[in-house]
Specification:
Largest sheet: none
Strand content: under 5%
Helix content: over 70%
InterPro entries: DjlA_N, TerB-like
Number of helices: 8
CATH architecture: Orthogonal Bundle
Shape: globular
Order of helices and strands: HHHHHHHH
CATH superfamily: TerB-like
Pfam family, one: TerB
Keywords: Stress response
Protein name: Heat shock protein DnaJ-like protein
Domain Co-chaperone DjlA N-terminal: 27-144
Number of strands: 0
Distance between the termini: 22 Å
Length: 161
């Protein structure tokens, strides 16, 4: 799973070295969309925060102050946004079709980080996917893949006990 994240973020940041974060930096848009998904059910759980931090750290190669900066910039952008279009329009310019699908998969992984999926989280991802041009079939497929990864992880952890 993390190899998929790594490939996605390496492609995403190829033209954006770690020199700082401009307002249209796709890393900020990804972080902001992740925040919106995390907040959709009315509560941000530690497991979701941890998943986001790990994802940003491993895939962007960020740690310490730069990691905190991208998270803060994502939170600020998310809190000032009136809709998803601001982020999805930036990402549509930076991502090809396959990368957009991967992003939807990442958002589903954030949803399942706490082991639960709410109707509001479904709605948020549906809107984001629609704005990114990801079909309902592809969105549902990514949801099913994320749910299967959670199930596989639980089974592996249970077997280890």
């Amino acid at each position: 799973m993390f190899e998929r994240f790594q490939a996605f973020f390496q492609k995403l940041t190829a033209n954006n070295p770690k020199k700082g974060f401009s307002p249209d930096d796709p890393r900020i848009a990804v972080a902001a969309l992740c925040m919106q998904v995390m907040e959709a059910d009315g509560k941000i759980k530690d497991s979701e925060k941890k998943r986001l931090r790990k994802l940003l750290k491993e895939q962007y190669g960020l740690d310490g102050k730069p990691l905190e900066a991208v998270i803060a910039a994502g939170q600020e952008a998310e809190s000032s946004a009136v809709d998803y279009y601001r982020f999805t329009s930036d990402l549509k310019r930076h991502l090809d079709t396959e990368q957009r699908l991967e992003l939807i998969g990442i958002l589903w992984d954030i949803v399942y980080a706490d082991g639960e999926r709410s109707e509001m989280e479904d709605h948020v991802i549906w809107r984001i996917a629609d704005l990114l041009g990801v079909s309902s079939r592809e969105r549902i497929q990514k949801r099913q893949e994320a749910a299967a990864r959670v199930t596989d992880t639980v089974v592996v952890q249970d077997d280890a006990d």
